[in-house]
Specification:
Layout: E1 11-17, E2 22-24, E3 44-45, H1 47-56, H2 61-68, E4 69-74, E5 79-84, E6 97-98, E7 101-102, H3 110-114, E8 117-119, E9 134-138, E10 150-152, H4 153-160, H5 162-180, H6 190-201, H7 203-212, H8 215-218, H9 223-231, H10 233-248, H11 260-269
Antiparallel strand pairs: 1-9, 2-10, 3-5, 4-5, 6-7, 8-9
Bound molecules: iron/sulfur cluster (SF4) (2 copies).
Length: 271
């Protein structure tokens, strides 16, 4: 987790790590700093984080977003992202931290899983680590670095289950990286931002949109995909990323071409 706490500023170690670099670290319940890293934090939630957390808490994505998150615009991209809303106490605690630890541990966000590592790029792709690198978030209160257990970055990612998170979020990370590669004055319309927000973060609303509107008439989507996204939230999430990429960035060959007849019909009726 990245601490914003002014009295406890994180020192970002200016060393880039790759997957096979090693470090010594261990975190456990008997360590003197247990849960200190869960206060004064700034956690951007990934789309898959939201799916796991809202299911863990038995909420709809709409309810989860309203209760636990704050919307932001990602620097240099003008893209909507969401961060975890902290409690209004003196130490700005995470809403999920209790004396006994994290109450959503098995569904904790990607950033919490990576800690004490930070990710130097959003475009991590398994097997193509040329543009993925990691760095240490050294916070003075964190005693985990005094422990002797040694990890490679690769082992740490697997142990924390963050490799699966990155795989599922890959299409979302691609969208952020693609938009960041555009000149900053190329802005998305408000409607485009709303669409992106819905497909990436409000999965229950996106499902309603796909199955409750004329979406499936407008786009030529094969029946297997339709069946998969009807019942599988991760498949729906990944479909959403690839549909957004099609709409915003694929100028030539579309993965999901529009149905010509439906487009003509809409032109006539002015829809
Ligand atoms: S989600 Fe869990 S691990 Fe992450 S900051 Fe909150 S309490 Fe800590
Ligand atoms: S060792 Fe570091 S990561 Fe673990 S509880 Fe302490 S401050 Fe948090």
């Amino acid at each position: 987790m990245n601490s914003n706490d002014a009295q406890n500023k994180a020192q970002i170690t200016p060393v880039k790590f790759g997957l096979d670099n090693t470090f010594k670290f261990e975190c456990h319940k008997n360590i003197s700093c247990f849960t200190k890293c869960c206060r004064g934090i700034d956690i951007m939630l990934t789309p898959y984080d939201i799916v796991l957390l809202k299911n863990k808490l038995g909420l709809s994505s709409e309810e989860f977003l309203a209760i636990y998150t704050e919307p932001k615009l990602l620097e240099k991209t003008d893209l909507p992202v969401v961060t975890l809303k902290l409690l209004d106490d003196d130490i700005r605690s995470c809403p999920f931290v209790k004396d006994e630890g994290c109450i959503v541990y098995d569904s904790r966000p990607t950033t919490c899983r990576y800690y004490p590592l930070g990710v130097g790029t959003l475009s991590h792709k398994e097997g193509t680590d040329e543009d993925a690198f990691y760095f240490f978030v050294h916070e003075p209160h964190c005693k985990g670095f005094e422990e002797q257990k040694e990890w490679t970055v690769r082992e740490w990612r697997k142990d924390q289950g963050v490799d699966i998170h990155d795989e599922i979020n890959e299409g979302w990370a691609d969208l952020l990286v693609l938009k960041r590669s555009f000149p900053q004055n190329v802005m998305l319309t408000d409607k485009a931002k709303q669409m992106l927000f819905m497909a990436c973060y409000n999965i229950d609303k996106f499902r309603e949109f796909v199955f409750g509107s004329s979406f499936l008439k407008l786009y030529a989507i094969d029946p297997d995909t339709v069946e998969a996204i009807r019942s599988d939230e991760v498949a729906l999430l990944e479909f959403g990323f690839s549909w957004l990429k099609d709409v915003f960035f694929n100028k030539e060959e579309k993965v999901y071409p529009m149905n010509g007849q439906e487009v003509e019909k809409r032109k006539k009726t002015g829809e």
